Amino acid sequence: MKPKIAAQSGTFESSDVIVLIEPLPENSGRKIEISSSVMHQFGASFNRIVVEMLDQYELTDIHLIAKDKGALEPTIKARLETAIKRSLDLQEGTLK
After folding, report:
1. Pairing of strands 17-23, 62-68
2. What is the pLDDT of residue 90?
3. CA 7/CA 9 separation, integer angstroms
4. Virtual CA dihedral for 45, 55, 89, 3, nearest 10 degrees?
5. Is the CB of residue 62 less than 8 Å from the CB of residue 54?
6. Closest CA to 35 of 22, 20, 57, 53
7. Can you tell me whether residue 15 is helix, strand or coil?
8. Would 93 be classed as within a structural domain?
9. What is residue 39's DSSP assignment?
10. Which of 83, 77, 44 is nearest to 62 (CA)?
11. Are 65 and 20 within 8 A, CB to CB?
12. How, if at all, do strands 62-68 and 7-9 pair?
């Protein structure tokens, strides 16, 4: 599946993560950019969560940017799911 529109979820607040998604041209693959205040400790886990969620929705040709401020795993998953659903035009969002 390919994202239809640009979408975002989350905030820059402490203990939260902002996720931005935009579609890429056909056959571009996945471009994932993650920055986190706790990357040294939890970076591998964060990357795993992102890849698993993208695999779950079978997303390709996507540019995903995540800026984390120490969010817990359930928050990361919720923000990712919301941004993904918004990008697939399955849920209304802030950039629409």
Report:
1. antiparallel
2. 87
3. 7
4. 100
5. yes
6. 20
7. coil
8. no
9. H
10. 83
11. yes
12. unpaired
Is 41 contained in some domain? Answer: yes
* pLDDT of amino acid 91: 67
Q: Which domain holds residue 15?
A: 7-87
Enter the pTM of the model: 0.90
Give the torsion through C-alpha atoms of 35, 37, 41, 44, to 10 deg: -20
Asked if residue 13 is part of any domain, the answer here is yes
Judge whether 44 lies within some domain. yes
57 is written with which tokens? 């929705």
Question: Which DSSP string do the residues of 42-96 spell out, in sequence order?
Answer: HHHHHHHHHHHHHHHTT--SEEEEEEESS--HHHHHHHHHHHHHHHTTSS--TT-
Tokens of 24: 């890429």
* Mean pLDDT for the chain overall: 92
